[in-house]
Amino acid sequence: MQDYLLNYLKYFFFFSLFITHSTAYPQLPPLIGEALGERLGGRITTQKGAWILQNTLEYIKAGEEKELIWAAEFAYGLTKDIGVELFIPIFLKNAAAEGISRGLGDIIATVEWKPFVNGPHSLLVMGGMKFPTGDRLAIPLLGTGTFDIVFNISAAHYSNNWYAALNIDTLLTTKRKGFKPGSVYEYELVFGRAINFMNKGSSKLFINLDLTGIYEKQDKINGIIDENTGGNVIFFGPLISWTRKNLLFEVLFQGPIAQNLFGNQSKFNYTTFFSFTLIF
User: Fold this and answer.
1) Are 31 and 202 in contact (CB under 8 A)?
2) Which residues, at least 6 apart from 215, have a Cβ–Cβ distance to it below 8 Å?
3) CB distance 17 to 42 below 8 Å
4) pLDDT attached to residue 5
5) In this structure, are residues 148 and 130 in contact, taking their beta carbons and an 8 Å threshold?
6) What pLDDT score does 54 carry?
7) At residue 24, what are phi and psi to the nearest 5 degrees?
8) 0.90 exceeded by the pTM?
9) How remote is the C-alpha of 65 from its chain's centroid?
10) Strand pairing category for 184-195 and 162-172
11) What does the pLDDT look like over 207-230, one tens digit per residue?
């Protein structure tokens, strides 16, 4: 049986990292505000009528399983507090002992709302659906084959010197043809400091530490638990964010500091992540 925790991790590293690097603030330095419309590496644009395009490349290694994934994310600001978003992952290489697969993954569509802003503090709430566009019969699989509900809540603090954020993600799965993937719960903590924050130049650099924890419930097939699925893993590593004018670059590297995977599953080695964001 395929290791489903790795399959869900594909989406949660992509999907949640778009959120947690920042939520949305009302008061940012002019440079970051100009670049990303009151956000730094977050998802929602607080500029009505503005588009954000984010391209991401991620590599995950877990024993013999190796995955190289590219994703495009399109966000549009309906108002200064409400946005919509489409997340499209493409597996450039999905390799395991059983074989290699490539192709479209499961697409996620969301609506996001910023209900609270108070000085440097902010809150972001997001809800949406994951669609079974990835090939469930591919080996290794490219999707879960189910329509799933996605929910996120993110809180952030931003000052001229420091940045901190807490992100909580939930993927509530549904049943299809007797198969019920385990629901997934994820948290992420980011804490960082601006480098040369007094610099009035055209760029800004943040050095962050990122802690990510993921727990997946076990899958069920016709009501029977698949013992070789589910478990939890905690990752830790540096996140570097650099912005200039209307551009943002981010690089992340994380290794597991704890993992408890049920049954016979491949242990995670590391994950690395690069993203490029443009607002227009």
Assistant:
1) yes
2) 184, 185, 186, 231, 232
3) no
4) 54
5) yes
6) 85
7) -160, 135
8) no
9) 20
10) antiparallel
11) 899 999 989 888 888 999 989 888
Q: What is the DSSP letter of 268?
A: P
Tokens coding 227 = 């013992």
DSSP tally for the chain: helices H, then strands E? 2, 16
Nearest to 223 by CA among 183, 180, 182, 264: 180
Alpha-carbon 177 to chain mean position: 28
Helices (H), the chain: 4-20, 30-36
Which of 158, 230, 169 is closest to 197 using CA atoms? 158
Task: Copy the structure tokens of residue 236.
Answer: 């830790």
Task: Of 25-34, 86-95, 154-163, give the range with the top mean pLDDT.
Answer: 86-95
Measured CA to CA, the distance from residue 95 to residue 98 in angstroms comes to 8
User: How many angstroms separate the CA atoms of 191 and 225, rounded?
Assistant: 38
Q: Check if the beta carbon of residue 207 is closer than 8 Å to that of residue 192.
A: yes
HSE of 77 in the Cβ direction (CA atoms, 13 Å)? Answer: 22
Distance CA 35, CA 173 (A): 36
Total residue count of the chain as it appears in this document: 280
The label of the residue with tokens 């408890």 reads 260
Residue 29 has a pLDDT of 29
